[in-house]
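Appendix B, record 7
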Amino acid sequence: MKVLSRSILSFLVLLLITLFVAQCSTEKSKVTTVEPLKSAAKEFKPIMDNLENVLKEGNIAAAKDTLNLLTAKLKAITEAEIPERLAANADKVKSQVEKLSTSVEELSAALTNPELSEIDSTVLTNFSTVRINFARLGGLLRVEIPQLVSFHDVLHGVWHDAYPSDDFIAIKAAVPAFKEEAAALDNIEWPPVLSDQVDVLKEKVKELLQAVNDLEAACQMDDTEAIKKATEEVHEKYATINSML
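Structure tokens (predicted):
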């Protein structure tokens, strides 16, 4: 009986060790799926946004301090390796990183000009170039999800053509396509690089699906104001997801 008890105890200990090792392996796997370049870009953006606010306030000293933080984050971007999934566009990514780096240097030169007494048009123009170059880099780094691309194909025509012109007939006509593409979003297989955001992305997809349902309901009621509001919601929910890619 004692031998049997020891055997069971040994088995349980071995099982616990095995589960612990498996859990550690899973956590390690999650960490290794993070792309340093994408992570660096993600950390760069809030500092860039803060710099924009400081520039609008006209605070030169605070702008210089924020720019120093931005430059430090830029270093992480320039030193990060280009992930394998972007191998086909590696040259474009390298070129865009260089453009971003150059624009930050030009902004720094304008902001540290000894003769600068207030935030002028040169500084603001240079900052605008930084934002444009960062946005272009973000476009190259974005993870492409086929189902979301298909959804966007429907949304693009509605948002840029039908919505601005109050073409409610066209918006109503697009609802079946919205419903079809939205249904496909439930089948997304999120790539490893987004593993740390999957839970949030799934929740955002649910919100987008609800927005599509709300648009369908508004169209059925033939309420033009509700249709416009629901269309805005669909666009906003999609844009939120897209910004996380």
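Remarks on this record: The chain has a mean pLDDT of 87. The domain at 146-243 is CATH 1.20.120.290 (Four Helix Bundle (Hemerythrin (Met), subunit A)).
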